[in-house]
Design a protein that fits this description.
There is one protein chain. The protein has about 180 residues and is an alpha/beta fold. Strand 1, helix 2 and strand 2 form a beta-alpha-beta unit.
Length: about 180
């Protein structure tokens, strides 16, 4: 991740304060002052009626046990409108859990939209109280770039695509992301 771990809340670029979508790397929650800047960015988005997104990178956080990792993530999860994670991140946070159980556990912490990329390339999406399964397209492998799917998903949301369509049509949304 390219998160700036020395970034302070008062150093957030003014443009990001007014952005329609604020995306925060979970890695930035590893240490202060970046943790405060990340939480401030998420809270600020919610306060101004903007959208906030957290790329939950649990495997990159600097804690060795799941309980401490969850405690560090809880304030960010409570402030984020949407969260994206990989199956490997879910494993770090919850151990061997079913994808739907992971969605439920995360939803209990606050986010309305949860995008879970499964190891087989399929996506589970929780929107409010509903769960949608978006199978991988025939012959499609799981993306090697862990950021491509969530980035395309959030770009599609920024273009006012319905969340279910944004998660189900990754090729269309990746092409849209390439244009931005």
């Amino acid at each position: 991740s390219s998160a700036d771990l020395a970034l302070r809340l008062d150093e957030l670029p003014l443009m990001s304060v007014r952005a329609a979508l604020t995306v925060v790397s979970g890695y930035s929650l590893s240490v202060e002052p970046a943790r405060s800047a990340a939480l401030g960015a998420l809270s600020g988005a919610a306060a101004r009626g903007g959208r906030s997104a957290l790329l939950l990178e649990a495997g990159l956080l600097w804690w060795t046990n799941a309980r401490m990792t969850r405690r560090v993530l809880e304030p960010a999860l409570a402030a984020a409108e949407s969260v994206a994670l990989q199956a490997a991140d879910a494993q770090v946070l919850f151990g061997a859990s079913d994808g739907r159980e992971v969605l439920r556990l995360l939803a209990d912490m606050g986010p309305r939209l949860i995008y879970l990329a499964q190891s087989d390339g399929s996506i589970l999406l929780r929107e409010g109280g509903r769960v949608y399964s978006c199978p991988a397209h025939a012959g499609q492998e799981a993306p090697r770039d862990r950021y491509a799917g969530p980035a395309a998903f959030w770009v599609a949301l920024a273009h006012r695509t319905a969340p279910r369509k944004a998660a189900a049509d990754p090729d269309d949304e990746r092409r849209a992301a390439d244009r931005v």
